[in-house]
Design a protein that fits this description.
This protein has about 300 residues and is an alpha/beta fold. It folds into two domains: about 1-45, no CATH class; about 50-295, no CATH class. It has twelve helices and eight strands. The protein has a six-stranded mixed sheet with strand order 3-4-5-6-8-7, sandwiched between helices. It has a two-stranded antiparallel sheet with strand order 1-2. Helix 7 (about 120-130) crosses helix 8 (about 135-145). The longest helix has 21 residues, at about 190-210.
Length: about 300
């Protein structure tokens, strides 16, 4: 009931009351002329569980079923995910009147999940769905406004190597993405494992920056010649996700190419390697050690 915000505003102004207010209909509030308590309230987002909130977390379980609290601990995570996707992601969005034809949006959700970690091409997606590009762009905007997905913008400040400006897209939970994309079992040493591992690190870094109130922008970089770095924090921390147990020189090419253009303070490759080691000035981190240092503010 957005009208309650007017009463809360009054109680803050007249009596100095303090409130914790939660809601899920972010888009309805944003575009519904609601009183958003400008200057009187701080906005905080809650994410699915992150690694430091799960003692002895199981990477493969997260890469398959995600980390929505009730689903991570469920004895039947796949069935619970199917129920969640069917009742919330589709029916709730339809109930709020955000899309006119649910069947079109349902097909779009499936395709959006397949686009996870990939650069977006609205024209190609629109062609596959038989919808106008304008509609596809609006659907992606709905996913952002309802906090179901995030666009990762491209870093374009590099001068020597011309950068691509197209954004990438990530859904808010890996398990939800797997259900929508029809992925069954994700196992190590496969291409899908690498994509899911990248998705996992994106969600961890994004949550860390928000929870720690770090205002540096999270981006990715890709040159027109094909060099790529998965994540950039601000202008000086480059992070690559590699789902391999043995990082080699070939895995360092993207970071080395970017470092020719901008001065990087930290160059990091996160992998399944058993031990932390260095390739010259590039640090190869075992993923557990990286996550531990990330949440301890040591990066």
């Amino acid at each position: 009931m957005p009208v309650l915000l007017d009463e809360i505003h009054y109680l803050i102004e007249e009596y100095g009351r303090r409130f914790i207010i939660t809601w899920s209909s972010a888009r309805k509030l944003k575009y519904g002329a609601a009183n958003l308590l400008g200057g009187r309230a701080l906005t905080r987002h809650l994410f699915p569980l992150v690694s430091c909130e799960i003692p002895g977390f199981d990477l493969e379980r997260i890469l398959n079923y995600g980390s929505i609290p009730s689903i991570y601990s469920s004895p039947e995570p796949y069935e619970d995910l199917e129920s969640y996707v069917g009742t919330y992601l589709k029916e709730e969005i339809q109930a709020e009147g955000l899309v006119r034809k649910l069947e079109h949006f349902s097909r779009f959700l499936n395709l959006a999940a397949l686009c996870d970690t990939e650069m977006l091409n609205f024209s190609n997606i629109a062609g596959d769905l038989g919808l106008p590009s304008k509609t596809v762009k609006e659907y992606f905007r709905i996913l952002e406004d309802t906090l179901v997905g995030s666009l990762l913008e491209a870093y374009t400040k590099s001068a020597k190597r011309k950068a691509i400006s197209t954004a990438k897209f990530y859904l808010f939970d890996i398990g939800v993405s797997n259900i929508l994309a029809g992925r069954q079992q994700i196992t190590p040493k496969t291409e899908l494992f690498g994509k899911a591992f990248e998705h996992f690190l994106f969600l961890e870094i994004k949550a860390f920056l928000h929870y720690s109130r770090d205002r540096r922008k999270l981006t990715f970089w890709r040159s027109k010649s094909g060099y790529e770095v998965d994540f950039l924090i601000g202008d000086d921390v480059a992070i690559e996700a590699k789902g391999t147990e043995s990082v080699s020189a070939k895995h360092t090419k993207g970071i080395r190419a970017l470092s020719e253009d901008i001065k990087l303070k930290r160059k990091i490759i996160v992998s399944l390697d058993p031990n932390k080691r260095d390739f010259d000035d590039i640090c190869v981190y075992p993923y557990k050690e990286f996550l531990k240092d990330l949440w301890a503010h040591k990066l």
